[in-house]
Amino acid sequence: MSDWVRVFAHSNALMVSHVHNVLESAGVPAELRNMTLGGGAGELPLGDCEPGVWVAPHNAARAESLVQEALEGPLEARPEWRCPGCGERLEGVFETCWACGTHRRD
Q1: What is the DSSP letter of 87?
Q2: Are strands 52-55 and 81-82 parallel, antiparallel or unpaired?
Q3: Distance between CA 38 and CA 49 in Å, rounded?
Q4: What is the pTM (predicted TM-score) of this model?
Q5: Which tens digits make up the pLDDT trace of 8-56?
Q6: Gyration radius of the chain over CA positions
Q7: Distance from the CA of 22 to the CA of which of 53, 68, 73, 88 falls in 20 to 30 A?
Q8: In this structure, how many other beta carbons lie within 10 angstroms of the beta carbon of residue 74?
Q9: pLDDT tens digits for 44-97?
Q10: What domains does the chain contain, in order, with CATH numbers?
Q11: What pLDDT shows up at residue 57?
């Protein structure tokens, strides 16, 4: 899998793991690399030590878009919605009704 491309790197391994989970949950196969090489910084080039998320080249554009949305939020705010389960009005940022647990359908 050496032909994969790096779509995200950060010195914070928790941030890298979060991005990996976002991609995997969206159905984009991703690989974590360099999660334990931080101690090699100084002896090895920084780019070789920094934790990162890698994907196959054909998934790179979608992965980069998902990474951007995960870090910065959606490009457009979603409108309020009414829960189909209980009728509660919810802000657009919510995917699940806080009152009854029904998932947004749109």
Answers
A1: -
A2: unpaired
A3: 6
A4: 0.64
A5: 999 899 999 999 999 999 999 999 998 875 555 556 666 667 899 999 9
A6: 18
A7: 88
A8: 11
A9: 666 667 899 999 999 999 999 999 989 987 777 889 999 999 999 999 888 899
A10: 5-72 (3.30.70), 76-106 (no CATH)
A11: 97
| Cα–Cα distance list, 2 to 6, 7, 50, 60, 75 (Å) | 11, 14, 17, 14, 32
DSSP string, 36-86: T-GGGBTTB-HHHHS-EEEE-GGGHHHHHHHHHHHHH--SSPPPPEE-TTT
Q: Check residue 65 and give its pLDDT.
A: 93
pLDDT at 1: 46
**Residue 9 DSSP SS3:** strand
Question: Is residue 86 within 8 Å of 102, Cβ to Cβ?
Answer: yes
Tokens of residue 75, six digits: 């490009």
Contact 10, 51 (CB under 8 A): yes
Give the number of other Cβ atoms within 10 Å of residue 66's Cβ. Answer: 22
Contact present, 48 and 34 (Cβ < 8 Å): yes
